[in-house]
Amino acid sequence: MVSHMTSRKIIPLHINDLLSCTINPIHIIADAGNLKFKRGRVSLSDDPRVGAPETAVTQGNVHAVGKLIIEDRHVTYREIEAKLVSRWIPHLLTEEQKASRVNWCQKKLDRFNSGNSKHVYSIVNGDESWIYCYEPETKRQSGPTKVIRSQSVSKKMFATFVSKAGHIATIHLNEQRTVTADWYPTIRFPKVITELRKINPERRIILHQDNASTHTAQKTRQYLTEENMELLDHPPYSPDLSPNDFFTFPKIKNRQRGQRFQSPEEAVDAFKNAVLDLPANEWNNPGFDCIKSEQLKIIAEDITEPLTYLINKCFESGIYPSILKKGNIIPIHKSGTKTDVKNYRPISIISSVAKVFEKVLSTRMIRYLTKFKILSENQYGFTEGKATSDTITKIVNQIHQNIDNRIPSICIFVDLKKAFDTVNHKLLLEALERIGFRGNAYSLIESYLSNRPQSMQISGSFSKEMYIKCGVPQGTVLGPLLSNIYLNDIFQINCVGKITSFADDTAILYEGTDWSDLKNVIENDFIKIIRWFNSRKLSINYSKTHFLPFGSYARHLPNYTNFSFNINDQKMQINRVPNIKYLGVVFHPHLRWDSHLNYILKKVRFVSYKIKYLGNILTEKYLRTLYHALIEPHLPYGILAWGAACSSHIYNLDVFQKSILKMIFKKPKLYPTEKLYADVRMYDIRHLYFLHSITHYHKFVNTDQKIKHNHYTRYKIRGTVRSYLAPKFYEIIPKDLKDLRFGNCFKRNLKKWLHSISRTEIHKLINTNIN
C-alpha cells in the first residue's frame, strides 16, 4: 500500500488503483482550482479521445511497475512516471499522423543540416519554473533515516534560457499565480530579450518552448515577430514539454534539495550558479544526430529489435553505414602553449548509435582475439583486466631482480609522434588479414575505415568537412582495439630487449654482463625497433625518447650519456636523463621513490589550497567528497611499485594526508593519528599499500597465475619487491577471506577486516619486512 497526500487528507492507494488511471497515474488528484472545474466540470474521468487507450491497466504495465518497486523500494511516483509514462500513454497514432510527425522531423533535419548547421546554436530553450527556499531531499538522497520536513512556502518564479553552447540567462520574474498571454510581452520577454541581446544585438534567435497555450498565443507570436525572434514549432501530437523540463530543471533542482536559502532570490541565484557550473560535455551533443546515450537508454526496449536487425544486416553485407562514420573533432589541450596545434589531442565525437554498433563489433573481435590468444600478453593498453599499474609493476619487478642480482640493465622509454593519427589503413588491413579477419569481417572493417568525414568543432563553429586518409579516430570504441592490433607485431621482433607496452607507450628493458657490452648490444639491437616503426609509417619522437640505467649506487652506473644510431645515413640519438616519468610514475636510476613522492605531493598540495579555502564555506559532507574526488585518486596510483619506499621518503606525504583530513573533519592539530583514521574510516599510505598488495596477489591466486618469487634475500632491496612482500601479507589474512573469489565481495570484506587491524600493527609488519 502507498499513500498520496493532498491538501486536505491522505488517501490510501493500492498499486492497482495507481494503474487504473487512464491519463497520468502520478497526478491523480484533481486541483480544486483547475479552470475546467470552475467552468462546471464535475467528472474526474477522462473524456474519450481518438487514438487513446481505454485503460492503462495492462499486464505489461503491471509487470513493469512491479519490477521497478522490487528493484528500489524507495522509488517515487515521479520516477515511475519518468520511466514508464511513454508506455502508460501509448497514443495509437494513425499512419497519417505518423507520417505527419516524420515529415516535420525531416524538414527540421534538412533545415539544420542534421545538426551540423551553425544555426543550431541560435536555438534557445526557455521555460519558467518555481523554486523554493527549501525543498526536502528524496528518500534516496537522505538515506534510510529520512527526517520529514515540509516544503517551504516562500518561492520565486524564474525563467531559464539555455542553448547548445550552455547557459544564456536566468531571470527573476514577478510572482503570479496564473500565467497569461498578456504576461509574456509585458513582464517575461522584455527582461529575457535584454539579456539575450547583450551577447549579440543582431543575433537571430529561434525560441524553443513547450507548446502551452500561453506560449503559442497570438499575442506572444506577434511580440516575438516584432523582436525578430522565431518561435520553433513542435511536431504534431507532442507532449507539453520543453528541453528544460527533462534536463535543466530536474538535474539542478535535485542537487539543491536539502539546502536552505534565506530568500527566494538567493535560491534562484544558486540555481543559476549550478547551471553555469555544468561542464561543457553536459550541453554539447555527443554526435551529429543530437542523440545522447541517456536518451537511448530510455527507449532501449523499443529500439533493440530494429537496431539488432540493422546491425546483423551490416555484418551479413560487410558494409558499415556511411551515416555512422561522421564525426566532429574537438581539440583537447594536453600541455605546453595553447597557441601550438601540436599540443592538442583530436577527440572524435561520434553518434551514440555508432558507439552501440562499434561496441557490438568490438566485443566480437575481442572474443576472437582472446580465444586464439592473438594479442601479446605484454600489451597492457585497452585490455580487459589490465591497467597502467600492472605495466608499471611488471617493469619495476624486472628491474628489482636485476639490481638484486647485480645485472646491468637499461630501459629505453619510447615516445611516438601522433601514433593514433598516423595508423596506415592499408597496413592495418593487412595485419587484420594475417590474424584471420577475412570475408565479411574484413570488408566490414575496411568499410568502417574508408570515407570517414569529419569536421573541427571549436566554440560552436565548424570547419569544412574533410575525409581522413590515415589514423584511427580517438574517442571511438573501436579505435583503441584497432591500434593494439596495428602495434601487436612489435612483440614478434627478434630483439634482445624485453618489450612492454601500454598502447603506444613502449618500454624496452635490456640486460647485459657489463655496461660496455650492453651499450654495443643496444646500439645494434635497437635499430631493429626503429626499422619496424618506419615500416609501419610511425615516427619516434627522439626529443621525448630517453633511456635510464639502473643500479644500486651511482658508482655502479655507466658513464655514457647517449646512444647513437645510423638509419639510412641519418644519425639518430637517444639521450640519458636523471629520471623519467612513464605512465605517471617517476623512475629513478636506483629505484628511489622520493622524486615520485614529491611529484604526488606537488599535485595534491595544489588542490589542497582550494579545499582549505572552501573549508569555512562547505559542510563536512562536501569537503569529504572533494577529498575523494581530487586527492585520494593520486595516493594509490602505482602504489604496488613505490608503496614499500622507506619511511623517510613517505613522511612528507603522510604528514600532508593527516593535516588535510584534520582540516576537513575539524580535528585539532594534536589529535591522535590512530584515532583520526579510525574515525574517518580511511587509509594512510602503508594501509593502501597493504590493501592493494593483497588484492593484487589474491587476483593471481584465483587465476592460477601465482607470482613467482625467490626467497633468497641476501640483498636489502629484495624486501621491497612486491613479489616478495605480497605472499607474506597474504598469509596474515583470515582463511575465510582467502576462500572468497576475487571480486567486489572479496574487496569489501578485506576492507572490513583491515579496519579492525590497528594502524600500528600494519606499519610494524611492513617496516619489519622492508628494513
Automatic annotation (TrEMBL):
Residue intervals of the Reverse transcriptase domain: 313-587
Pfam families associated with the record: DDE_3, RVT_1
Domain of life of the organism encoding this protein: Eukaryota
One Gene Ontology term from the biological process aspect of the record: DNA biosynthetic process
GO molecular function: nucleic acid binding
Xref: InterPro entries: DNA/RNA_pol_sf, RNaseH_sf, RT_dom, Tc1-like_DDE_dom
Protein name per the record: Reverse transcriptase domain-containing protein
Organism name: Acanthoscelides obtectus
Lineage summary: Eukaryota, Metazoa, Ecdysozoa, Arthropoda, Hexapoda
